[in-house]
Amino acid sequence: METTGKLIKPEAMIFDMDGTLFQTETLLLPAYHKMFDILREEGHHEGDTPDEQLMLGSLGMLLEDIWKRVIPHGTSEAHRRADELLLQLELEGLENEEAVLYPGVVETLSELKERGVRLFVASNGLEDYVKGIAMARDLAPLFEGLYSAGEHATTSKVDLVALLLKNHGIQRAWMIGDRSSDVEAGKENGQTVIGCQYAGFGSDSELSGSDAIITTFPELISLYDSSAES
Length: 230
What we know:
Blueprint: E1 2-3, E2 12-15, H1 25-41, H2 52-56, H3 63-70, H4 76-93, H5 105-114, E3 118-123, H6 127-136, E4 145-148, H7 149-152, H8 157-167, E5 173-177, H9 180-188, E6 192-196, E7 212-214, H10 219-225
Parallel strand pairs: 2-3, 2-5, 3-4, 5-6, 6-7
Antiparallel strand pairs: 1-7
Helix pairs in contact: 1-4, 8-9
């Protein structure tokens, strides 16, 4: 755990989903390979399945931008079909017990809620995906709000977090995530950023600008307990 200065206790914590709460690759990679098998069968894709590291390295982006990177020569119809298939296959995959949260997520969130912290999710994913994970892994009751770009039609996480803060009257929050989009969303909205350095999807500079870095999720408890009241 690293900090760059004194942290102030937040009234709320806003969490990214993929690579922060949820071990995305445990659900995504089986669905990803099945998706391309179907895309080939339907005539939407030719050739090999793009390297899965390309997909993992795109996590945190909007789906529209992910497909431009992963299937750059695909048609708009192929991209829309990829949207549909990936969501369908991932929701089906949630029935598989191998699709898991990071260690200590439920316990840590429960402790934070007991301490009076308001908990939220802000994700660039689709609404059914974000809410599906929260429901399937018993996270939903812990959160006051589950915000997704898919539900609110935001074009950046900055806008999504701004909407969340406004809707819930939050003045002081910690934005917690593993990608540069999370750092940007926190900082552009004047909030503290806690970078999560355990997913391994991004580059070494991905979390530059964070106020603190954690290497396991439960470190949030000690970080919160050691922060100042004001």
